[in-house]
Amino acid sequence: MADRRNSPVDAEGFVEAFARRMEANQVDGKLGRLVTHLKNLGATKFSGGKPHEAEEWIYNLEIHFEMVECTPVELRMIGTHSLEGDARFWWDTVRRATPPMALGLMDWNTFKGIFLDKYFPQVEKDKKETEFIQLVQEKMTVTEYETKFIKLSRFAPHMIDTPDKKARRFIGGLNSNIRRLVTGLGITYEEAVDRALTQKDNRPWKQHKGRAAFRGVATTVDKGKELANPSIRCFNCGGSGHTAAICLKPRRLPGSCFKCGKMGHFANKCSEPNQAQNPPPRPAQLNVIAFENTVMEGTLIAYSTHARILFDTGASDSFISAAFIATLGLIPDELDKFLTVSTPLERSTILTKVCKSCPISVLDIEFPMNLVVLPLGRYDLILGMDWLSKYYAIVDCHERTITFSVPEQPVQKIQCHLPTKPSYPKFLAHVESKNPRPSIEEIHIVNSFQDVFQGITHLPPQREVEFGIDLIPPARPISITPYRMAPKELKELQTQIKGLLDLGFIRPSASSWGAPVLFVRKKDGSLRLCIDYRQLNKVTIKNKYPLPRIDDLFDQLRGAQIFSKIDLRYGYHQLLVKKEDIPKTAFNTRYGQYECKRIATPWLRKKRKSIRLFSTIGKSQKEM
């Protein structure tokens, strides 16, 4: 009799039966233990969703796979076992369309390729790679920027495949005020991160306060408007065409002479002539900014920083914003001879500074150029005909592209767009409507960011600091009858109690303790529900955690320029009350007795407990 164990038909049937058995989730003891072990490690199921969620699920699952020993086929079986919902329906369709033999031999890498083609296609990978290429720090802290840098770098490994490229890419995305303190020859990625984290100002970048002053001085797009007003006089250097806020010369010392800048006398007794009264040599003439139809705008890299650039075929020279070089901390050179810039209205201003060999990168190729320093408004650079002609630029106004055909270099093409105009209307009057205030649903900004305005739907997690009510022995339960309320207040009391019950802040009680409630009118006219715990406070042991001194807080704010606040609607509700102390929080109302599961006001110890909690949670952010 032939040995049927080696029969191809029986082998195929065995594989088919094995595949069907495993795909029906009838896993054997080993795979069952592996699934349980992975679940304990934190492996989750996937039911379908956004592309980045699918990629993160694969990424996290492969991390857990490193902790188990099994074959690639078994890994695929565990992965398909973790699918549910829409993802499971998709896999069932794929499984039915796959031959049994191929299904039984399908390993993890094959499944991952099929899965990512479905839930994380190439177009999504390209988006993530573009997001990494365009990643800059902006309003993030250095820690947040590094975290996002590491997270996105796996989508563009070719850009960080060497330590030098990784360090340069990380430094290039830092804010300029940190980047110029971090940059160095031969610096590694780890050293760059350490230097950035140790900088005094590693907080989110603040807009250079001098830039706002340029908006009123010059505009670079609108037809017929001037770049600078020659009637404006600088109170620092005495020159015309700019203000002291953007003056590039050293600041005049307080108490110095206005004419010569020396100490010891005032301008009315100065023997030296005023430099501003002596006209400079007649400067060379330049034309800048013709009309709207001769310009396009785009973004390029200048000094390793993303710069907003105006390409102007009507400008004879190229310029750099005084605010931009101030932000970068650059020191411009003196021009060999003064230049005067004229506009279509034939108004002019005198320029004396230049930044030589400014590195302007177009698709990783540097096109350096000398840029004259000019007070600009909304742009960092203006690239005129001198730069465009030097690098053989071909401007296609119809396609809005610029092609560079430099000899012995690859052809480079960049996409531009027409200058954007503000899309929001300006109002010259403020109108107060007598209609009722709009509801939350009618506010556009709330509807646009609904995930930010989601309400609290569950109790807070267990935290290191808990709120307890320790009594002075031999304290007895205290219960006080409810205060009298007006009919309007009683109606509001019903509404607020129902809201607190729905949120899970309170629950019905049968405690022997009980405090009365009352309403306090807020500034906006609404009523705040307060519980009168004064009698309970008298028999409560005081918390010893220190409160901050207001003088110390003001000292810490010295030198700060931007302030913000966090208006916590349910700020004190972030603490859970100890289970054994919940009955002590009971309060009496006309509609029954209730007790608090979260901290409520105005307990004697609430501020100290809350400050201790916030100090513990925000320990690493105290100095931010």
From TrEMBL:
<keyword id="KW-0863">Zinc-finger</keyword>
<dbReference type="InterPro" id="IPR000477">
    <property type="entry name" value="RT_dom"/>
</dbReference>
<dbReference type="Pfam" id="PF00078">
    <property type="entry name" value="RVT_1"/>
</dbReference>
<dbReference type="Pfam" id="PF08284">
    <property type="entry name" value="RVP_2"/>
</dbReference>
<dbReference type="InterPro" id="IPR005162">
    <property type="entry name" value="Retrotrans_gag_dom"/>
</dbReference>
<dbReference type="Pfam" id="PF03732">
    <property type="entry name" value="Retrotrans_gag"/>
</dbReference>
<dbReference type="InterPro" id="IPR043502">
    <property type="entry name" value="DNA/RNA_pol_sf"/>
</dbReference>
<dbReference type="GO" id="GO:0008270">
    <property type="term" value="F:zinc ion binding"/>
</dbReference>
<dbReference type="GO" id="GO:0003676">
    <property type="term" value="F:nucleic acid binding"/>
</dbReference>
<dbReference type="InterPro" id="IPR036875">
    <property type="entry name" value="Znf_CCHC_sf"/>
</dbReference>
<protein>
    <recommendedName>
        <fullName>CCHC-type domain-containing protein</fullName>
    </recommendedName>
</protein>
<dbReference type="InterPro" id="IPR032567">
    <property type="entry name" value="RTL1-rel"/>
</dbReference>
<dbReference type="InterPro" id="IPR043128">
    <property type="entry name" value="Rev_trsase/Diguanyl_cyclase"/>
</dbReference>
<dbReference type="InterPro" id="IPR021109">
    <property type="entry name" value="Peptidase_aspartic_dom_sf"/>
</dbReference>
<keyword id="KW-0479">Metal-binding</keyword>
<feature type="domain" description="CCHC-type">
    <location>
        <begin position="233"/>
        <end position="247"/>
    </location>
</feature>
<keyword id="KW-0862">Zinc</keyword>
<dbReference type="InterPro" id="IPR001878">
    <property type="entry name" value="Znf_CCHC"/>
</dbReference>
<feature type="domain" description="CCHC-type">
    <location>
        <begin position="257"/>
        <end position="272"/>
    </location>
</feature>
<dbReference type="Pfam" id="PF00098">
    <property type="entry name" value="zf-CCHC"/>
</dbReference>
